[in-house]
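Reminder: ligand-aware prediction takes two inputs, not one.
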Amino acid sequence: MSEASKKHLWWQKGVVYQIYPRSFMDSNADGIGDLPGITTKLEYVAHLGVDAVWLSPIFSSPMADFGYDVSDYTGIHPMFGTLEDFDAFVEKAHGLGLKVILDYVPNHTSDEHPWFVESRSSKVNPKRDWYVWRDAKPDGSVPNNWLSEFGGPAWSWDEKTGQYYYRAYHEKQPDLNWRNPEVREAMVDVLRFWMDRGVDGFRVDAVNHLAEDESFRDDPPNPDWDGKDSRHVYHRQIPIHTSNLPETHEAVADMRRTLDSHGGAERLLIGEVYLSGEELMAYYGVANDGFHMPTNMELVRAAWDARKISAYIEAYEAALPEGAWPNWVVGNHDNPRIASRVGKGQARVAAMLLLTLRGTPTIYYGDEIGMTDGDVPPELERDPVAKSVPGFGRDPERTPMQWNATEKNAGFSDSEPWLPVPEGDFATVEAQRGDSYSMLALHRKLLALRRAEDALSVGSYSPSEVRDDLLSYIRGHDGRRLLVALNFGEKDVDLDVPFRGRISLSTHLDREGEEVSDSVSLRPNEGVVVEES
Ligand code: NOJ
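Here is what comes back for the chain with 1-deoxynojirimycin:
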């Protein structure tokens, strides 16, 4: 290891693996994944070659939004297990060299959280101001035009106390009032609780919504909204009074200070942010005192086009503030799976892209075997968004992990799973383990290469040739150079290589060691990493 690379922190050199707990492994035959189930699969995760596991919420919750509606921030939902199961999970993860990252949901609680139960009990309750309450307009209608991300107005009426409460998401997810110092203190205490239990970092949910305009002004209409937006009705307005307010950054800085005083830079703070350019970069904080990594979602929704993606990478790199660490994501539990978006062939190219860019990658569970979106018929839909904004349900990307085709329910559960597993021929861990050309084999090799090559994990990024379906770039560190060349198309592509070298890896897994002098040919849907000799 070179001197320069020693200075990097684990999360800068590392790779994060996201687990959606309901869907990873069910140990008690209730059809829903749980902590003991995840714990039994940690060897698999470690064997992949990742460095950290991020668990989507496992806390007490009525599950209106599958755990993103928390009713006790320091309790585990019995469906997932107990605090002892959690401790066992952390101990095993750490023993295998894996860090543990938890989801942290500060913007809203469940309406069943005792804080909200108190808050809604009377207008003079001490917790009234912990949430965002507002009178109706004189005609009884909602206080202003603010919209919910889950469709419709962002206000819900409380019959008993005769006021509306604000909720950026589901009516069962009332927004906390982050202007209230008691709320802030109670919420940073949650971070302390989990860090004391061994947690290495957090992924902060929906952070853009933490603060709302104090004078409750209407959001302006979006002039680009054409009534059939590529996303959904939420984009009818520009949420300038409900999203990304300056106060949000103060709250993030508070969270960061809490982490820094509990283990320093070894603790990782990731923020869920769907923005680009300056607005995204603001989440690093004024002096890198915000998130270590505000999520970079460019590749989650990008058109799969070599030139466009190259332009995204360059714009992102150019916008990064001094000292800010980049990160990359191609899929998560809120968006269609990469293999469905770009196709099976290109999913390999996407994996090579994700794992060879500068910055920390996050892999969504199942993408390492090329899982595609599940086929979830309307009667089996579970996501509330599937009902409130038809066509935008997130169940397809949340289907159970496909362990094998020999046991029932893809080896996920002995009972009917909460979401269906595919029928017929489908990708499984077991089949791909025995196949040295599989997607799983590709992930393991990419992860091993990234670990072995500082140039790939912490090296510089320099764009190289980009034309038609070709995207190529050079990663360099301490005089070592690697060229990454990706063919986004179905035709052969040739490109010049600026050095003599050999192929370290091809997405087709059949060219390792091939000598390269001054050019290389890529087959359809092929990516290669060429190391300088
Ligand atoms: C973002 C989460 O990823 C999503 O699943 C959830 O529905 C919303 N935030 C609300 O918590």
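The pocket of 1-deoxynojirimycin is lined by residues 65, 68, 105, 169, 205-206, 272, 333-334 (CB under 6 Å). The first strand starts at residue 16 and ends at 19. We will return to this case in the review session.
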